[in-house]
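REQUEST FORM: STRUCTURE PREDICTION
Request ID: SP-0412
Submitted by: Lab K.M.
Chain count: 1
Length (residues): 76
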Amino acid sequence: MIGFGAAPETTSCSRAGCQETAGWRLDWRNPRIHTEDRVKTWLACDEHVEFLRQFLLTRDFPLRVSPLAVDVTEGA
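STATUS: Completed
RESULT:
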C-alpha cells in the first residue's frame, strides 16, 4: 500500500498471487476505522482492477479508481 498522492514503491498488482505490472490505482479507506485523511492504495493490473474494485465496493468503502501514472524520470 502507498499513501494518497505518493509514488508507488512497486508497480505490481495487489491481487494475491499476481505479479503482473499494475496500470491502475485504487485509493480507498475504511470509514469505520479511518479518518477522511487516511487513504490506502492498492495497485491493479487490467485483469484484476474490476475484482479489487468490487471487493472494496461490496464493503461500502469510499473508493477512487484512476490510471496509474508512474514518473519514469524521477530519480534519473
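NOTES: The chain is about 15% helix and 20% strand.
Reviewed by: T.R.
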